[in-house]
C-alpha cells in the first residue's frame, strides 16, 4: 500500500498490523537546495582549446572539472542546484535541469584558458554522462515559517517578500507520506537502497549534510537521462530561484518500530514553526494543519478574472505557470506546483483552495496564521508513491537490501 492508503485506514479507526501490509511506498516533492549535477559532453573538436576556465549553460554558471580534459574538447562540469543565471532573472539550475530532461537544447558558452569564447548548444541525449546528486534531500520533515519581525524579509522560504507581523505562513514537508518519516530509525533505508529520484531509479549513498539521528536526511544519485521532467523544476523565491526534486522510497515492514512509524498520521507528526528572520523555533504545530481537510490541487475558474491592470498571479507565480492568452487566463497544470500562492494574491477568486492554518502557542498566546505558500507538492508526491507501488506490483521495480546502515 501507499503511505496515504495506510493513513486513510488509520483515520477511519481501522487496526493495521504487519499481517496486512508487506511494503509501504512513500514519496516527497519539494524545494531541495542540496542538489547538483555532474555533466560531461563534447563542445568542440579535439585540440580546439586546451582547457576551459569558465562555462555557462543557459547563463547558469558551471564549475569546470574535476577532470581538466586537456585538449580533448570535452567538458566535465558540476552545476549547483542553487546557481542563478547571469543572463535571465529568476532562472536557475532547477530550470536548467528540467529543460535538459525535457529534451530541450541549451546554450553552452565556454571561456578557454586562452581567453577565447566558444559558443555551442547541447541536448541531454548528447551527454554521455549526466547524473543528478543529492547532498541533503528527503528530510524526515522540515518546518513552517512565519515572519515575526516588523519588516518584510527576502528569503528562499517565500515567493515574494515575506510579510511582517505574522500575516502569513509558508511550509515544507509532505508529512505522513514522507519517506524518512516512515522509517525514522533508518532500519530499511540505508546505503545502497534503491529509490526513485525524479522518477528515475537511483540509490541512497549515505546521510545528507547536517543530518543526525534526530533529524535525518539523505544523499543519493540517479541518471538524468531516465528522469521525469514533471517531477523537477525551478521555483522562484524572493532570494532567487531554487531547485525542485522528488523522491519515492519503498519501506518494507520489517519490524514493529517501522510499523509504528508508518501508522503515524499528520495529526501525530510535529511541524516546527520557525521565525524566518532569526531562524529560531517559536512554536510547534502538526502537519494536520497543512494536509488534513485541505486541497491538494488549486481550483481554477478563469471566468472570475477581473482583468486587473497588473495581474499578480502572473507576476508572482513561482513556477511561471500562469499566462494570459487571447484575453483569457491560462493555468499550465504541467508546470503548476500547487503551492497556492496565486490564490493569496488574486482579488477575483480565479484561484481557490483550502491551504490550511497554523495553530500554535507563542509566548503563552494562541496564534492562528493562515498558510499562504506551500513549498512541497503533496499532490504529485502522492501520485509518485502510487506509481512506485504499481512498479513494485508489476515487477518493474525490485526492492533490495541496503549495503550498510546509515545510523
Structural description of this entry:
There is one protein chain. The chain is 14% helix and 34% strand. The chain is of the alpha+beta class and 407 residues long. Among the domains are: 36-130, no CATH class; 299-352, Alpha-Beta Plaits, CATH 3.30.70.20. The strands form four sheets. Strands 1, 2, 3, 4, 5, 6, 7, 8, 11, 12, 13, 14 and 15 form a 13-stranded antiparallel beta sheet that branches. Strands 17-16-9-10-23-22 form a six-stranded mixed beta sheet. Strands 18-21 form a two-stranded antiparallel ribbon. A hairpin with a 2-residue loop joins strand 22 (357-362) and strand 23. The protein is globular and about 70 Å long. It comes from Methanolobus vulcani. GO terms for molecular function: 4 iron, 4 sulfur cluster binding; metal ion binding; oxidoreductase activity. Keywords: 4Fe-4S, Iron, Iron-sulfur, Metal-binding.
Amino acid at each position: 500500500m501507499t503511505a496515504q492508503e495506510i493513513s486513510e485506514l488509520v483515520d477511519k479507526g481501522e487496526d493495521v498490523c504487519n499481517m496486512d501490509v508487506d511494503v509501504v511506498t512513500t514519496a516527497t516533492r519539494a524545494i531541495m537546495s542540496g542538489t547538483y549535477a555532474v555533466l560531461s559532453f563534447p563542445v568542440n573538436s579535439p585540440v580546439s582549446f586546451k582547457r576551459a576556465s569558465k562555462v555557462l549553460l543557459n547563463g547558469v554558471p558551471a564549475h569546470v572539472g574535476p577532470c581538466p580534459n586537456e585538449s580533448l574538447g570535452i567538458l566535465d562540469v558540476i552545476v549547483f542546484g542553487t546557481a542563478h543565471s547571469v543572463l535571465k532573472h529568476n532562472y536557475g539550475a532547477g530550470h536548467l535541469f528540467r529543460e535538459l530532461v525535457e529534451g530541450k537544447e541549451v546554450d553552452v558558452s565556454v571561456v578557454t584558458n586562452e581567453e577565447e569564447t566558444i559558443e555551442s548548444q547541447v541536448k541531454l541525449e548528447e551527454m554521455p554522462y549526466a547524473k543528478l546528486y543529492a547532498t541533503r534531500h528527503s528530510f524526515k520533515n522540515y518546518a513552517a515559517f512565519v515572519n515575526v519581525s516588523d519588516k518584510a524579509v527576502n528569503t528562499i522560504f517565500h515567493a515574494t517578500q515575506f510579510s511582517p507581523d505574522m500575516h502569513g505562513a509558508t511550509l515544507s514537508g509532505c508529512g505522513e507520506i514522507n519517506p524518512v518519516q516512515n522509517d525514522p530509525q533508518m532500519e530499511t533505508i540505508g546505503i545502497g537502497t534503491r529509490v526513485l529520484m525524479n522518477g528515475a531509479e537511483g540509490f541512497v549513498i549515505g546521510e545528507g549534510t547536517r543530518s543526525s539521528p534526530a533529524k535525518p536526511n539523505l544523499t543519493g544519485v540517479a541518471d538524468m537521462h531516465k528522469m521525469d521532467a514533471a517531477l523537477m523544476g525551478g521555483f522562484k523565491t524572493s532570494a532567487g530561484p531554487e531547485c525542485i526534486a522528488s523522491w519515492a522510497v519503498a519501506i518494507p515492514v520489517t519490524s514493529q518500530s517501522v510499523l509504528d512509524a508508518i501508522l503515524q498520521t499528520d495529526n501525530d507528526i510535529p511541524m516546527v514553526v520557525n521565525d524566518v528572520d532569526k531562524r529560531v523555533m517559536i512554536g510547534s504545530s502538526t502537519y494536520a494543519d497543512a494536509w488534513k481537510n485541505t486541497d491538494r490541487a488549486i481550483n481554477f475558474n478563469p471566468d472570475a478574472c477581473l482583468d486587473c491592470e497588473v495581474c499578480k498571479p502572473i507576476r508572482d507565480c513561482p513556477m511561471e505557470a500562469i499566462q494570459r492568452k487571447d484575453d483569457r487566463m491560462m493555468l499550465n497544470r504541467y508546470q503548476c506546483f500547487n503551492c497556492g500562492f496565486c490564490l493569496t494574491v488574486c482579488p477575483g477568486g480565479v484561484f481557490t483552495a483550502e491551504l490550511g492554518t497554523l495553530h500554535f502557542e507563542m509566548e503563552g498566546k494562541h496564534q492562528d496564521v493562515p498558510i499562504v505558500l506551500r513549498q512541497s507538492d503533496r499532490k504529485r508526491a502522492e501520485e509518485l508513491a502510487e506509481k512506485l507501488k504499481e512498479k513494485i506490483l508489476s515487477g518493474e521495480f525490485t526492492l533490495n537490501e541496503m549495503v550498510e546502515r546509515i545510523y
